[in-house]
Amino acid sequence: MTDGVGSAPAIRVRNLTKVYGAKAAVNGLSFEVPRGCFFGFLGPNGAGKTTTIRMLMGLAAPTSGSIELLGLPVPSASVEIKGRIGLVPDESLLFDHLSGAEFIEFVGRMYGLDRGVARERARELLALFELDSQPRKLINEYSKGMRKRAAMAAALIHRPQLFLMDEPFEGVDAVGARLMKEILLGQVQQGATIFLTSHVLEVVERLCTRIAIISDGRLVADSDMAELREGSETLEDVFVRLVGVERQAETLGWL
Amino acid sequence: MVVPQARAILWAQVRTLWNFYGRGRNRGPALFTIAMSLLWYGLVAFGGWSLAVLLAAPARLEEARGAGSQGVFFSFLYWQLVPLMLGAAGAQLDLKRLVVYPVTAAQLFGLEALLRFTTGVEVLMLMAGAGAGVLLNPRLRWWCVLAFLPWIAFNLFLSVGLRDLLSRMLTRRRTREVATLLLVLLAGAPQLLAMWTPPDAVRRWFDALSQDSLPWTLTARMLLGEGSLIAVAGLAAWTAVAFWFGWTQFGRSLRFDATAERSGAGAAESGESWVERIYQLPGRFLRDPLAPVVEKELRTLSRSARFRLVFIMGFSFGLLIWLPVTLRGGLPEGGFMAAHYMTFVAFYAMLLLGEVLFWNVFGFDRGASQIYYLLPVNFGHVLMGKNLAALFFVLLEVVMVITVCGLLGLPAGFGRAAEALGVAVVMSIFLMSAGNLSSVRYPRPVDPAQNWKSNSAGRIQAAFVFLYPVLGFPVFLAFVARFAFDSEAAFWGVMAFAALLGGITYRIALESAIQAAETRREDFVTTLSAGEGPVS
Questions:
Q1: Quick count: other Cβ atoms within 10 Å of Cβ B17?
Q2: What are the domain boundaries of chain A?
Q3: For B299-356, what is each residue's pLDDT tens digit?
Q4: CA distance B252 to chain A (A)
Q5: Is A110's CB within 8 Å of B257's CB?
Q6: pTM for the complete prediction?
Q7: Complex confidence, ipTM
Q8: Which residues of A fall within a CB distance of 8 Å from B12?
């Protein structure tokens, strides 16, 4: 690894665009995520968050623009990059007919861990995320929160340098969320970078040091949390101010 | 070389299958699959044994050499064409889930190529028989059987390429229709030409299959002791071309963004009001809650890549594969096959559409099926709604077949068209009766965006050979009655009786399915909510 690669931002996105049919889901996005940063990527529904994270994960190809992860260009160095990132994707990437331990072991082996190591780490992670009470339970029998915990446990198994997380706290109960937050903060303290999307603004406000907000495929804010929250504004106030006018609940005649 | 990631994928798939079938809940379909597979592969094994006996006899070697090229060519056709025709192209990697891991494209391609074995099991069994025969034949050297190695590689690579190419083509909406039309015209051209061409010309075309430069001829020559260094080089060149084709197409599929393709299609579809009018048609004749169920089925099925594929295949390939059989008897007016050409095509279409429209009607709904338990709707109305939509698509398919037959100048008189439609309706009633039961007792989630069925074509052929004749027996009796009494009235009389019998069967089966849906509610929802493994 060269020095340039080692000191490069964890994520560097330049003029990223993704067009579906006639609509640009992501339109000329540019931002950087420094290493060791807890980065929150926010936006209203349909703003382009998931499309962006799918392009970062390599699940979708950009129409134009460039992506660098850990100083390496995507997609030309994608195999090396993939080995160094941990993913908490949406639920579709879980294998429902595997038990939690089997799934985590599978992911470990896909990251090139020795089978014995993967199995041992899977067992330990299962215990850490409190999923070990019913080891034979299949993922399709898990609750939504348990599925998220299993996905996060799998993301940790190869000790990645960068985490890409799509709504990691969705459906997770308070105890589980506390556990996950502690683990993630521990990873950041050890030098890892976390990029997450979430609609739970309170969690983002508490965890993230830097925020980007996207609306209608374009970046409308990208700064440190403290700079973003001027005075006594909450993140929710900032978010609503930036992504659109406050809508009043209209009353339907028949409702 | 089997890399660790490939081993991990195979391990996860084995665990997935074991967890799905080995926990009691799904043993019924597993046992059914095993029984059907035993019957089908038993027949194929008998074929392999016959081949071994033939090739082991030194006295019959010249005879084998005479037909070797055509034999290997038909194994090629079976491996490449039959899975496509039956819309059942075997297991494949679920690339959209595996692409996030640090696995190289070359490793994934290697694994995908190995999975193409699942579409050629029958061919491999026959090849094993042929190989044993060659080894036992004292006039042939043992190394002749090595000719199968490049032949297998050639077929595996080609199969990857063909499947990936067709999958992408069928996802692109506009291209899909045009490509299918071209495919039908292209594939139909030789057969249509054959209709108006003297038999000598047809024989010359058939002889052209044995040209020295073609891969099946080279394989046959090498296998039967007539090989040379040039033949080895030729087969290696063909294998290299197949590798290049497979690798290129696989690479394109890896980069293919189906979401982008579909989003374009959606935009185009919204402007087509005539399609919308078809969707809303049931609302004019049916009452709620039946009408919205039928309407929903028409919308979701016609938007599913998988359904569209089998529907298009149903009439296009259906017309093509039965045409040569028909023509073999001489002019289209002669012979049993020719006389009932449209009926055979309709029967084939129902076979293809079977899994989606009859046997697993909740498959595409997956986890959303639980809504039928949450809404204040009788479950019977849901099943009847799905059945009516199925009948609509079956009849639409048959009408399309009749129209194409008319356009191609094939015999498509009123009587034959009525027969095809009648058989389709009566068969559908029996298929729906059995299908409603299997749909609630053995549901299986299906990804509607996936073009091909994951199972091998063999199981479908087993259903074709064993299951459909049983359900189609009352219809068969109608044909027997026509033959015995030489009377159309006898045919339609028995058909009417079969329809009545089907109606009673349907009613009883529907009640039973409704009860099963109630008692198996939890299993039903859990099974349909599950996803698949790394290999789908």
A1: 14
A2: 93-158
A3: 888 877 778 777 877 777 667 666 665 555 544 455 666 677 778 888 878 887 887 7
A4: 12
A5: no
A6: 0.71
A7: 0.71
A8: 95, 98, 102-103, 106
